[in-house]
Design brief:
With 323 residues, the chain is α/β, with parallel strands linked by helices. Helices cover 35% and strands 13% of the residues. It is globular.
Amino acid sequence: MRYRPLGRSGLQVSEIGYGAWGIGESAWIGATEEESLRALHRALDLGVNLVDTARGYGESERIVGRVVRERAGRGGEVLVATKVPPRNGVWPAPAGLDPAETFPGSHIRESLQTSLRASGLDHFDVLQFHVWSDDWVGRGDWLETVADLKQEGLIRLFGVSINDHEPDNALALVRSGAVDSVQVIYNVFDQSPADALFPACQEHGVGVIVRVALDEGGLTGRITAGTTFPEGDFRNRYFKDDRPAQVEAHVDALTADLGIEAAELPETALRFVLSAPAVSTVIPGMRSVRNVERNVAVSDGAALGADRLAVLAKHRWQRNFYQ
């Protein structure tokens, strides 16, 4: 496993982190706690040292906390990032909201305390707002609360999870110096963070945590026309109507241009993300030992060549399947 600095924080994070949404047994159907525990332990055994969870991920914080506590004393620090949901329950955050509606200090503190109890941990390494709007820079009492929580040792760093497909909506925050890390969607299809957000993060020493590197499965090569998911699985909404057929067409074009088989696409997609110098870590969801081992193997220092990156740059596909 290779490691990169998380911005100016002084922390070194594994290139491959662990996205723990899928193990929460809520929006993703099919996870079992037994397999989730095995997968997370295996990831940490292989050098993963950053786990990303959230208050809104079902049982995820509890499962993550259990594993971290079980590994106490084995050596090697496990960094845990969690998220505070907006008080008004609105995802994503539309423009015009007052921060008093979304992240008042009292709500931030209450959510953190709930997460600490659920996980059994005494602190989190990164506390992230689960939505963000640049309208909130310089307004509200959230910044003072974050500073107090750091001073009290309940959190080490402050970050935000940027609204889906809105990377420019955190530029003012990054430039303000008030944030330690941002979490953002970045993949072969949505390359927009590289335009302005990544350069700003590099300039201001802000860490970048990349989510949805495999487009919720769209870049695995396994989504084809007619693909369906279990009832209650959020992917039934993400890949609704003719979207699986759209994905299949784009993936077919992509693999043809690269001259690779569909089975090789996940590795290429992860290497694409890691090719961006601004990226600190990528956090694919991993619900099985098999997925852990395949994804962690990508952290071997083998970079994509300029010719490959040039081909991938042509496959931007701006759309928002979360809507």
